[in-house]
Amino acid sequence: GVDWYRYRKHILRPKLYPFYHKIRAQKGAAILMEDGAGPHSNHLLEEERLREGIVQKEGPSSSPDLNPIESIWNIMKDNLSARIPKVTKTKEIMSVLVEEWEVIPQEKIDSLIECMPKRVTACIKDKGGN
């Protein structure tokens, strides 16, 4: 499993923080959204995010999948599963995931973001029901 230490060592410091700073430099602003899962909510990570200047939006640990990235992960997972031959080695999987990420049309990402107000309204109407 992934605990806060592994999350920091393998994801935050080498990947997410540099990506966040790159986006913020390009766009002028960026917000990191994480759910309340254990690895994300350690107090040492909160202090580190403050030092890094990370602006954060927190979500609940268990919620409807409103975050557009969830749909992107599903697309990538489906595309990975459909590959022939099957990709099984970790190094290959990482490479293939980068390939899959890069071929997702920007229009698809935009449409997932643009439908958010409608999805949030429906979620509120249903009192958060999935």
UniProtKB/TrEMBL annotation:
Q: Which InterPro entries is this protein grouped with?
A: RNaseH_sf, Tc1-like_DDE_dom
GO terms for MF: nucleic acid binding
| Domain Tc1-like transposase DDE span(s) in chain numbering | 26-83
Its domain of life? Eukaryota
Query: What Pfam families would the database entry show?
Result: DDE_3
- Its name, as the record gives it, is Tc1-like transposase DDE domain-containing protein
Q: What is the lineage of its organism?
A: Eukaryota, Fungi, Dikarya, Ascomycota, Pezizomycotina
